[in-house]
Amino acid sequence: MINIRRIEPDEWQIAKQNLYRVFHAVFKEPKPLEEYIADRETQGNFKDFDDIQKNYFENGGVFLVIDDEGQIVGTGAIRQLEDKVCELKRLSLQFEYQGRGLGYRLVMELLQAARELGYEKIRLETAPVHQKRAFALYKRLGFYEIPKYGTTHPNDVAMEMVL
Q1: What pTM did the predictor assign?
Q2: Can you tell me whether residue 46 is helix, strand or coil?
Q3: Which candidate, 131, 1, 112, places its Cα nearest to that of 66?
Q4: What are the E-state strand segments in 2-134?
């Protein structure tokens, strides 16, 4: 049975590995997965996973996982950016689970959590060149493009939605 739930303290490394696997496939990385992960780790990618408590739970946010019979197959989180504004982060879903409405369900739960926490806007950064389905989902949900606020990657766009 598939369900969406809060991440447990001992699952952060599994969730991080899931995100690496998804990004390795999304960005069509030619290196083997293990080498890709090692490179990203030395670059400090996904450092926020090293202390989910501080970066999400103590930063006005939540971190959710999609669980299929005890296996993490997707992740998504929100955290505070500024007063009344949060950021959607670490949204990923393994390819074999895509197209079932799970990403939509996860985003809807995160949007609801953001509203309950008192946020008025939610922002995100994505790479529409590589993440076409995610970009289309965000647009359908009402996100609109805004000036970049954090990324330095030229393919990324920033988006925002009023909650």
Answers
A1: 0.92
A2: coil
A3: 1
A4: 2-6, 62-68, 71-82, 85-93, 121-126
Residue 43 token pair: 């670059």
Per residue in 17-75, pLDDT (tens digit) is: 999 999 898 888 899 999 999 998 898 888 898 889 999 999 999 999 999 999 999 99
Average pLDDT over residues 128-143: 92
CA 145/CA 72 separation, integer angstroms: 30
User: Of 104, 93, 60, which Cα lies nearest the Cα of 78?
Assistant: 60
- Span 11-15, mean pLDDT? 93
Does the structure show a pLDDT above 70 at 152?
no
C-alpha distance from residue 161 to each of 70, 82, 89, 119 (Å): 32, 15, 14, 11
How does strand 121-126 pair with strand 85-93? parallel
Amino acid residing at 14: I
Judge whether 85 and 29 are in contact, CB under 8 Å.
Answer: no
Strand-pairing partners, residue 74, are 66, 93
* Residue 113 near residue 62 (C-beta atoms within 8 A): yes
Q: Which amino acid is at 5?
A: R
Distance, CA of 116 to CA of 62 (rounded, Å): 11
pLDDT value at 153 more than 70:
yes
